[in-house]
Amino acid sequence: MPIPMLPVTARRAAARRRALEKDLRQTLAQLKANDSEFQLADDGYYLEQVIYEHAALMCRCSALLRELREEGAA
Questions:
Q1: Tally of structural domains, the chain
Q2: Which of 30, 37, 45, 65 places its Cα 20 to 30 Å from the Cα of 73?
Q3: Residue 6 falls inside a structural domain
Q4: Is 8 helix (H, G, I), strand (E, B) or coil?
């Protein structure tokens, strides 16, 4: 008995969701690494760079979470 296939749009939606979840996991890992860098930073200029990177990563997480919520609502 053949395995039933999902419609193309459902497969694309599932693939998109998996890609978003993977991107979110990677971004969270980068955020964790950034936190470690923040703990070790001793130079003011370097600390400023780490803080800006943290802000960018937080924005990226927020955008990914928003997209995932919208995908779930559809």
A1: 1
A2: 30
A3: no
A4: helix
